[in-house]
């Protein structure tokens, strides 16, 4: 009986070490980081990951969704609580971009560049609906251009995702300059007609599927 308890305790410790290692490695390298790098940091075999979590997706779902949801919910809550709708919108976009910089796992979640998991899909859907409310509030105020759609934020975050990955070593604040240009272009004052319509939700799903196959 004592031996069985020892085995279970060892198994629990391995799971805890794997969860900690996965959070660290995914945060440093993104959600496509090699599983053997996670196993090595946890001091276990790669087979232990598959035994305990079944797949990369299972490990991601055990580590990332709650972390991502808490931070995105906080960003949205602060934006909606801001008295000035434009400031709330701008602060939200800036904060989400900061999250992309701070954690490459979140960078992949926010830019939708990750293995498909049910829990992450729920987080992304929830975040997009929050962003829609924040944008509509600024549009109703007249400060955000009327032809902006919540789907347009994907372009902002995709662009920032690439900047984060390619400039974080040499110029870690370069994304702020690009974001300032973007936010100025989203103000209603001086807005000019756009050449094409925003993506529809259906088109966004098609794009996401294509990114998943190419990734």
From TrEMBL:
Keywords: DNA-binding, Transcription, Transcription regulation. SUPFAM superfamilies: Homeodomain-like, Tetracyclin repressor-like, C-terminal domain. It holds the Pfam family TetR_N. Gene3D superfamilies: Tetracycline Repressor, domain 2 (1.10.357.10). Residues 12-71 form the HTH tetR-type domain. Residues 34-53 bind DNA. PANTHER family: HTH-TYPE TRANSCRIPTIONAL REGULATOR BETI, HTH-TYPE TRANSCRIPTIONAL REGULATOR RUTR. This is TetR/AcrR family transcriptional regulator. It comes from Glycomyces mayteni. The lineage of its organism: Bacteria, Bacillati, Actinomycetota, Actinomycetes, Glycomycetales.
């Amino acid at each position: 009986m004592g031996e069985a308890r020892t085995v279970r305790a060892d198994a629990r410790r391995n799971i805890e070490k794997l969860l900690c290692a996965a959070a660290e490695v995914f945060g440093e390298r993104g959600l496509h980081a090699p599983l053997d790098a996670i196993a090595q940091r946890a001091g276990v075999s790669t087979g232990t990951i598959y035994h305990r979590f079944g797949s990369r997706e299972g490990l991601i779902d055990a580590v990332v969704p709650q972390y991502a949801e808490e931070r995105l919910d906080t960003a949205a809550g602060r934006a909606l609580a801001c008295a000035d709708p434009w400031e709330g919108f701008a602060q939200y976009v800036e904060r989400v971009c900061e999250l992309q910089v701070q954690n490459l796992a979140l960078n992949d979640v926010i830019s939708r560049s990750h293995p498909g998991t049910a829990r992450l899909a729920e987080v992304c859907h929830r975040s997009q609906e929050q962003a829609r409310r924040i944008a509509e509030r600024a549009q109703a105020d007249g400060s955000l251009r009327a032809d902006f759609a919540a789907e347009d934020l994907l372009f902002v975050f995709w662009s920032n995702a690439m900047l984060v990955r390619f400039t974080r070593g040499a110029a870690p604040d370069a994304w702020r300059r690009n974001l300032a240009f973007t936010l100025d272009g989203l103000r209603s004052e001086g807005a000019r007609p756009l050449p094409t319509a925003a993506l529809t939700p259906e088109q966004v799903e098609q794009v996401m599927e294509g990114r998943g196959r190419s990734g």
